[in-house]
Structure formats: structure tokens, C-alpha cells
Design goal:
alpha+beta; Arc Repressor Mutant, subunit A; about 425 residues; about 45% helix; 6-stranded mixed beta sheet; Dna Topoisomerase Vi A Subunit, Chain: A, domain 2; single chain
């Protein structure tokens, strides 16, 4: 059986173009992650490495391909993608470069198939599409409480037609891209509820209602606006305007204009600035990511204002896609080590590990700062921290050693508390 017979293709069209603008390829059947990885393909290590990366979210094809081809080979990477695609483990999105004249496809995104995502989450990946839609309809009915007007009318139409269509006629999502489809349907169902009750909520709160995680819906802000033709404000949703605070010497271009970040004052970079940015020059020999704002400000004014060899970055918890993009662009310009300092609790360890995985994927090294048993010993024991039961990830031990078990036992420390011992802290800062 040929590849084309085992792979389904969803084409996305746009009014005003003769040919599709995008296509999404996925396997017609789902073979399961474990079964796929144990196939006698000789590609197990590569596939495991690839799945580890995309399990954290969709990845841009070009930088991912460059890293894996350099580490393995072009043929091995292509063969692994083919196996994972046919077995229904991944989806590949492609963009048509000439939608008005023909079909010139380039791959743009690699992501987990919704069936593999469900497998990883402990759900039933073999649940039929009909059952998924039935369950989603029941969830929406529970939110709507019989309301069928306004946005809820739009949601009902999306469920019955099995597609979300923008006022412009553009197809935004279908159930074949299940995570995206469910995200938009459930989000808009909650929008109808908020409008009915005269309330307003941050998008991250609605994301927690939908997925139990605060950042999932953030990647679909554009689609939410496109689908309804309304701003987030009019949909009773709020999304904070995210900025990235960076301190240090860096030369870059943004929207064609040359700009310079100079030691002396932090620069505030918007997501759009980072997206369009081309980093030209870096004189620093390290990046230092600090989780908390209060600590970022304190060490900036007490130590780093007098230095120019460190790029100081406010992490603000788990790194957003914009912050990761910035770090990636810096490391693509110059491979320098990245230092990370977070709270000594479960979330602190996990977000540091997330940063470490990303940085290592960029070909650089990570060093953890002030997150050892020595620091925990200074704690007054008043900081409860986050859910310690989340620390069953064995990959944390090589990075943090005995600290993992100490935090699981309830011994934690907040960054701000450690600043009470500033002389101790300063001597250990990079």
C-alpha cells in the first residue's frame, strides 16, 4: 500500500485564491506510540527524540529539521517522519507558496496527532470521531444551559457542520485537527456563558476550564478573533499584552530598522518585535534567566548594571513561545551558556527543566543557579510552593540531584526569601 493510500490530507482554502492555502497530513489509522517506537525501523532513538520535542507543542518544521538532520541525517529524519505520519502519531502542516496560480508546498509545522496527544494524556486514543463529537456536544450543552442565541448559535452550527467557518468564509478548524477544534468550540461556549452572565475573564482562566492548563488557548487567540469577527474584548475575554524584559548589549533588526539594546536600562520587547527580529550581534558570554520579577529587579540594580557580559532575562514562570523564540534567535547567533534560577518548588524545577530541554535543543548548555540543597537549608519553611506530586519525572534527577526528593518531602524555598542572604547569593550569581 502506497503512502498516499495510508495518509489523509485536509486542505484549507481561502476566498480569493484558486488553490488551497494550507494542507494538514495525518495517518488514516492510529498505530499507537509504543507500537510505532518498537517497530524494527532502526529509528527508535530519533523518533523518541522527536516526540519528546513536539510533546511540548507544535514545532516549526525548518529549525526542527535543521537540528535533527545535523544530529542524525537527512534520510533518517525523512524516514522517521514518514513512519510517524503513517502510524497516525504526528501531523504535518504545509503552506502553499502560490495559492493563486498552483500548488507549491513547503512544510511549516510538525505536531502531535490528537490521537497520540490523547494517548499521552491517558485518554482513549482509539475513540471514534463520532464519539469525540458526541462527548464535546454534551460538554457544550452543559455550559449553554439551553441558551441558543448569539455566540452559542455559532457554536451549535460549528458542531452540526463539523467545521468552524469565519464570517469571511475561511475554514478555521475541523475535527481532524481535534485539539484546535475542541479548543475553539469550548472557548466560544464559555464566551456565551460569560456574556449571558455579564462577566469578563482572562483567556488563561478559560483555558484552565477547557484543558486544565492556563496557556493552551493562548496559541489560538488569532483563530478566536477570526472565527467570530470580534475582538477578545467584545468576547468578554482579556489577554495581557506580554512583554519580554531583557537587559544587556544586543544589536538587532526589527521591521527593517536597526536597534540596539544597551547595558544601562532594560528593554521591553513585544511579541511582534521578537517575531520580526533578526539578532545581528551579541557581546555577552552568557544568558541568565530569572523567574521572578522582584528578584530580576533586585539583582539587576545590585549587580548587573555594572556589567555588560550577561544578558539578563525575566522568565516570568514557564517561558512563553515569544521568550523561547528570543532565546533561540540569540543562541542561533552565538552559542553561549544559559543560566536559570527559579523557585525551589515543583513548578520551579519543572519550568527549569523545560528551559533546559529547549536550550539543549538549540545546541547550547544549561547551568542551574542557586537551586541546591544548600539553599533549601536556608529556608524558614514558610513557603508551601506548588504541587510536589508532579515530581515523578526521573529526568529531573540529573539536573537537580537530591533536591527533587527534598522538595517532594515538602522542603521548599522562594527566590525572594533567598534574597535575605544577598551576600551569599551574589557570590554564586553568574
Amino acid at each position: 500500500m502506497s503512502i498516499s493510500e495510508r495518509v489523509s490530507v485536509e486542505y484549507i482554502s481561502k476566498e480569493g485564491t484558486r488553490f488551497p492555502i494550507k494542507k494538514i497530513e495525518s495517518g488514516k489509522t492510529y498505530g499507537g506510540i509504543d507500537s510505532t517506537l518498537t517497530m524494527p525501523s532502526g529509528l527508535q532513538e530519533l523518533m523518541q527524540d522527536l516526540l519528546k520535542q513536539i510533546s511540548k507543542g507544535p514545532k516549526q518544521y525548518s529549525p526542527m529539521a535543521s537540528r535533527f538532520i545535523a544530529k542524525y541525517s537527512s534520510k533518517a529524519f525523512d524516514d522517521a517522519l514518514e513512519v510517524l505520519l503513517i502510524e497516525g502519531v504526528i501531523q504535518i502542516e504545509s503552506k502553499n507558496l502560490r495559492p493563486k496560480k498552483g500548488k507549491v508546498w513547503i512544510r511549516t509545522v510538525i505536531k502531535l496527532d490528537s490521537r497520540a496527544h490523547a494517548d499521552m494524556q491517558g485518554n482513549d486514543p482509539k475513540e471514534s470521531l463520532e464519539d469525540q463529537l458526541k462527548r464535546l456536544t454534551e460538554e457544550v450543552d452543559g455550559i449553554s444551559c439551553g441558551c441558543s442565541e448569539g455566540v452559542m448559535e455559532f457554536v451549535s452550527k460549528a458542531l452540526s457542520e463539523r467545521q468552524i467557518v469565519a464570517p469571511s468564509g475561511e475554514i478555521i478548524a475541523t475535527p481532524q485537527a481535534w485539539i484546535k477544534f475542541r479548543s475553539l468550540v469550548m472557548c466560544l461556549a464559555y464566551v456565551a456563558k460569560l456574556q449571558r452572565e455579564g462577566r469578563r475573564e482572562p483567556l488563561r482562566i478559560v483555558s484552565s476550564w477547557v484543558w486544565g492548563k492556563s496557556k493552551v488557548l493562548d496559541q489560538y487567540k488569532r483563530e478566536i478573533v477570526l472565527a467570530t469577527g470580534e475582538s477578545l474584548t467584545k468576547l468578554n475575554l482579556t489577554a495581557s499584552f506580554e512583554i519580554t524584559l531583557l537587559y544587556g548589549n544586543m544589536t538587532y533588526k526589527s521591521n527593517g530598522a536597526l536597534a540596539i539594546a544597551t547595558a544601562g536600562i532594560p528593554v521591553a520587547l513585544s511579541d511582534d518585535t521578537i517575531k520580526d527580529m533578526d539578532v545581528i550581534g551579541i557581546t555577552a558570554d552568557r544568558i541568565f534567566i530569572v523567574e521572578n520579577m522582584a528578584v530580576f529587579r533586585e539583582i539587576l540594580y545590585r549587580k548587573y548594571l555594572a556589567e555588560s557580559n550577561t544578558l539578563l532575562l525575566w522568565g516570568e514562570g514557564y517561558l512563553s513561545s515569544a521568550k523561547k523564540r528570543l532565546v533561540g534567535k540569540i543562541l542561533a547567533t552565538r552559542k553561549i551558556p544559559v543560566y536559570v534560577w527559579s523557585d525551589l518548588d515543583a513548578d520551579g524545577l519543572l519550568l527549569t527543566k523545560d528551559i533546559a530541554d529547549f536550550v539543549e535543543g538549540c545546541g547550547s548548555t544549561v547551568k542551574v543557579v542557586l537551586m541546591s540543597a544548600n539553599e533549601i537549608a536556608l529556608s524558614a519553611g514558610k513557603f508551601c510552593g506548588s504541587n510536589h506530586s508532579k515530581l515523578d519525572n526521573h529526568d529531573l534527577v540529573p539536573l537537580f540531584g537530591e533536591v527533587v526528593e527534598m522538595i517532594k518531602a515538602g522542603k521548599t524555598m522562594e527566590q525572594e526569601e533567598l534574597m535575605l542572604f544577598y551576600e551569599y547569593v551574589e557570590s554564586r550569581l553568574p
